[in-house]
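Example (one chain per record):
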Amino acid sequence: MKKVKAIPVKLSWLKSIYQRTKDFLGENIHGVWLLRPRVSIVGYVLLFIICSPVVTYLHENHWLHPWLHPANSSEIIIGIFTLLFALLLPLAIAIIQGDNNPLVRQTLTTTVMRFGWMSVIVAIVCFTLVVPAKIYVDIDISILKLKTTARSMTIPFLAVGFAFMLASLYRSVRWLRDEAMTSGLFGEVVDKDTYIRSFASYRFACIVRALGNAKKSYIWQIVWSQQFSVSYEDIIHEAFFDRIDKIIGSNDLKHYALMLRELEAYQRNFEKRNQNSYKFASENPKRFFLLYDKIHRTNEAHYRKRSEAGFSVSDNAIKSIASDYINLLVKKPGTNGVWNLFQALDVYTQELNLVVLHDKTREDWLVETFLEALFNSIKDSHVQAYSIKEHFGERSPWTVTYEHLFSDGERYNLSFLVIEKYWEWLQSSLEDLGDHDYFFKNDSLVEIIFPETSGIAMGKLYWLLYLGRSSDYLDLWITKHCPIGFMSSGPILEYTNDIQERSRQIAEQKEANTFKLFCRCYYQYIHSLDLENTINQARSKDTAELDEAQKARLDDFIMLAEKIVQTREELLN
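Predicted structure:
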């Protein structure tokens, strides 16, 4: 007889069910949602609903009546809850005395032991014991007809209380079994003020739940005063961002005071944030930049009530946080810090529709703060100008060109913000220079943000604009040396016979672009200089008392001013 081959039964699905159940009951960090109140409340409500018909069934079965005698019921209730309290009390003492960290203590009282609800359960038990046992209650609702005692009707409440105490016992045991690590995940040094637990630990899950349900601002103030490992730092920030979004979305002005104090606590403890976290530089700036916009718009929407809810102060707090991130990342070694800031600002400017110019230039505090920090970082040699060249390409909205500002097609609002902030920053930088100092960093920066212009010509034009704030700018031009406009890079060309001619054409084109862009951008400034009369004064200047350098500066001024006047007339025509 032919043997029938046995068909193997695949039981992998049983294993998956076991694993899923284990993960479900484990309440690890990946299932933090299980710790949230809504899930717990639904469970207790279902338990109450199930217990109610069970009580009816037990009451109608006469063979169970001896067990359900009022005297026995009281003894059973007292015995069960006394046993549970006897188990919970030493556990509560052990876990509370085990850690003096204020954040941990708050978590224990609100999340693990839940002393508030525990008091309610005790009150229910006490009430049950004093309910008269021989008072009968008739229930006649539709098809439901029931005659039971008042004490029996309290059994569903006791069942819920019993389940709650068992859950508290389970949470307490899990807390005690969760061992602390002696160091961080990536070798961080842990001091006495650092609270670090193993990743995916039950303790940290409880802490995250306590943070999500925090109704007091001091809880988050405690959080930000702590130091966390990389993984925990990221999760804490996610919980914080979710909380802030909920507060802003609720439109409840009473919660804004809490948000204010939490933001201030974050700003005060900014140096305690774990900078080794990937999200610290890649995600946090973007989230805080967008949060700044939300708070700012909320402040504007509730202008009349801002003093009541602390809107203006919260606006200042989020500004300080954004500035801290910008100032830190622009000075970070390498290019990652600046690159992350550009990525964050690209999202921010797109979200606020700041990239493209519409009716008029839209100023923005955050963009201006970033540009000033970036320029200062280049000035102080924290960042090399060439390292940001990729962000100021031909098609980049940050790049300042004539087409980006004044073309008939798409114009960029960011280009206007860059040139406005650059001129403001340049004035401040020139005022800090000594009489014989040179500002070569500016020439490198000009080559980046004005790629189609001549660095030498642009430096001289801005120097003229800087001196033009004074009525005797011609004399200042002659007597003071120009600290900018010494370098101008050109294209790399292959060696051919016409290489000099090609270089000359490119240089001339860049110089023409420089004057065209400058005269269009600063038309009103140039008009106030009255260059025609100043040129006549320069030509009639007595050069006998001037040295050779001053004579060269005078000639240079005449050529520069004549070129400006010529370009301006061409633009008018």
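Caption: The longest helix spans residues 70-97.
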